[in-house]
Structures are given as structure tokens and as C-alpha cells.
Amino acid sequence: MTTTTKPSMTVFFPCYNEEENVERTTLAAVRACKRLFTDWEVIIVNDGSKDRTGEIADRLAAEIPGVRAVHNNPNRGYGGALQRGFAEATKDFVFYTDGDGQFDFEEMETLLPMLETYDIISPYRKNRQDPLHRRMNAKCWGILVDALFGLGLRDIDCAFKIYPRRFLQQIDLFSEGALIDTEMLARARKLGYSIGQIGVTHYPRTAGEQTGANLRVIVRAFRELFTLHSVIRANPGRAAAAATPATASPGRTRSVTTA
């Protein structure tokens, strides 16, 4: 991809009980895509919501060209929702964020030039707008993950990433819960993909409720973490994977942090 080429982009976001946010988030995604890309799609992943999220998502898909709604029934958890979005994507690159409106889709523009140099763009939150206990939990989790996988990334779980679809087609994902970001980045490193970092703005949640701090979610993530460590050491992608990243040599990765 050259600096004058607009990438073909799938944009998706998982939603669980986000009836107050899903329309606002979808409209923001469409506005950004129309400005930044010529070939794009927006996918709403309704992850078994019990409120009107699915109904609103279907209405938006019917009204807005380029928007699709897909539904997990029952709820598959955060990792399962991301897996559904990755499986539904049809464009060359896949961007995902959360459906709660805590990021600005317009900031995708700052990520795009980095695709000239890096295979994957994994930003960090410059001013994380979460309660103190969530920030402390995230810090401790990051230390543990780095000790196990040596990723050296500033904010593993920042939900504002771009992956090439060829990478997604190369791997089989294990995680159905909150471990999904760790798994994807660890597999990418093992397969030789280069990872670039850049700061993005994080905004306070204005509606709905967070679910990431749920004790059941946390326990599941820790249980999966150590299993994943063994799985990735044995097989970073899938047994038949032989593709080579476009901008990195196998076994070699590059990472940059941009202020």
C-alpha cells in the first residue's frame, strides 16, 4: 500500500446491551469510513444482547448502505464477539473497536500512514478514562502478560487496532474471553508480524455499563492465559500456516511507539 492508496477496510465493533450507544457509534463509524476509504464496510456484532441492541442494529443495517448486523445467540463473550467480527470481514484490512463510544473513529486517520511500515497497528490509550481499580488491574495484567510472552507493548487491550486480513486467515483463535487481544498479538509476534504503536484518545463512557471488570470474566481470563501460553509455544498459528508477512521477515518483529 502506498501513501496515495486508500486501504480496503472492514470496521466492526462488538455490542452487548448497548442500546444507548449502538446507533451513535454506528453513525460515527460510517462518517469516518466515508471520509477515509473508498472500499469499506461497517459490521455491528450484537453479542447476544438482552436489550434492544439487536433490533436497533438490524434497523441501521437496513437503512444505511455498507452497514451489516450479525448476531451471536447466545452471548459468546468478548473474544467470541471479536472472532465473529473477524470471520465476517471481507476487506483487506480489519479495524475494530468497542461499541461503547469511548474512542473517536476519526483517529483511524492517524493509524493509516503507519501501514506503510508495520503489518499491525496496536495503539495505546493516552489518557485512559476508566476507574482507578480498572487501571490498576490493567497494569498488573500487562506486567503478567509481558512476563509470559515478552510482547513489550504499552497497552495490549486497547480496542482500537488494525490487522491485515491475511493474518486473521492464517491463525486459529483459542480465546473466547478477555484474553483475545493478548492471543492475537502473541501469535502475530511468533509469526513475524511487525507491530506499530501510537497514542489515541480515550473518552469516558457516557451510557450503558462496563462488563470487563466482572469477576467471572477476570477468572476466565487468568485460566485461559496459562493454557494459551502453552498453546502458542507449540503452534503460533495453525499447523499448515506458511504465509509470510508483507513487511517483516519471519521470526523478526519491529515495534515503535509514537507520541
Q: Give the strand order of the largest sheet, numbering strands 1, 2, ... along the chain.
A: 3-2-1-4-7
Percent of residues in beta strands: 15-25%
User: What's the CATH H-level homologous superfamily?
Assistant: Spore Coat Polysaccharide Biosynthesis Protein SpsA, Chain A
Q: Give the number of domains.
A: 1
CATH class: Alpha Beta
Supply the number of helical segments: 8
- For the termini, the CA-CA separation is 23 Å
Kindly state the percentage of residues in helix.
25-40%
Q: Which shape, going by the Cα principal axes?
A: globular
Q: CATH architecture, please?
A: Alpha-Beta Complex
Q: How many strands, what sense, and barrel or not for the largest sheet?
A: 5 strands, mixed
The string of secondary-structure elements, in order, is: EHEHEHEHEEHEHHEHE
Structural class of the secondary structure composition?
alpha/beta
CATH topology: Spore Coat Polysaccharide Biosynthesis Protein SpsA, Chain A
What is the mean pLDDT? 84
The low-confidence parts are 239-259
Strands, count: 9
Radius of gyration from the CA trace? 17 Å
